[in-house]
């Protein structure tokens, strides 16, 4: 009875949030408080799963299940993403045809900077993700862009994430109403139900982390992007943050958006900001 009441209360809370976020798009910038939102978001998970170490949430389903965690730790001795790390490191240091490299496009030569992405570009007025920045770097140096969902992009971001492992996520929201709007838009997208199954991102990753959906244990939303990119057994390969968003939309039978659409960039901004302080753990591996 107690569990049922909790479930009903959780559903009611989610419904209230969904209702509020689906209201007409009027952003009152002076009422958006990302700091308070991040604190409430983190506290929700800390209080719901008091035995999980805070930094362990970045390990997704492995933080929710002791048996899975043990098996994953054993696999980490020979991680399935190792091939992507090796390829990404070589690609990162290989000069473009004009002699420049990715290091010329990023602060600190691109090493140890994953925790600062995505960021809000006040000149452009939009969120810039690491995947987007890498392709812009390629195009600025006369190279064709890579696919945003896997292969070379996944290898490059795997290597860059690896150089930031252990560093706390550190996403900034500048004093710019457009940045607050991007954060709020990402939050709204996260909580909005869509698709034939009428699921939101929060339906699985806030209401049901640790529970099974078919054979899969659902990951908590907190720190879910800290492990990206990831190797997934169901993909038989690597995938980027863009691939994960597209897949999630497909799984709820919604129409996926284009990778790096404004909506996906904004929800990445929201999820990354509310994970501030938790360590980068990418690249990751999932069933």
Low-confidence regions: 1-29
Major sheet: order of its strands?
A: 6-5-7
| Termini gap | 33 Å
Taking the sheet with the most strands, its summary is: 3 strands, mixed
Order of helices and strands: HHHHEEHHHHEEEEHHE
Mean pLDDT: 90
User: How many distinct helices?
Assistant: 10
Radius of gyration: 19 Å
Beta-strand residue percentage:
5-15%
Please give a structural write-up.
The structure is a single chain. This protein has 287 residues and is mainly alpha-helical. 43% of the residues lie in helices and 7% in strands. It contains ten helices and seven strands. Strands 6-5-7 form a three-stranded mixed β-sheet. Strand 5 and strand 6 form a beta hairpin. Helix 1 crosses helix 7. The longest helix has 20 residues.
A few lines on this structure:
The protein is mainly α and 287 residues long.
Question: In terms of topology, how is this protein built?
Answer:
Blueprint: H1 2-21, H2 34-48, H3 66-75, H4 82-93, E1 119-121, E2 126-128, H5 130-140, H6 151-162, H7 177-191, H8 201-205, E3 212-213, E4 216-217, E5 230-232, E6 237-239, H9 241-251, H10 262-273, E7 284-286
Parallel strand pairs: 5-7
Antiparallel strand pairs: 1-2, 3-4, 5-6
Helix pairs in contact: 1-7, 4-6, 7-10
Which key phrases capture this entry?
7% strand; globular; three-stranded mixed beta sheet; two-stranded antiparallel sheet; 287 residues; disordered N terminus; 10 helices; mainly alpha
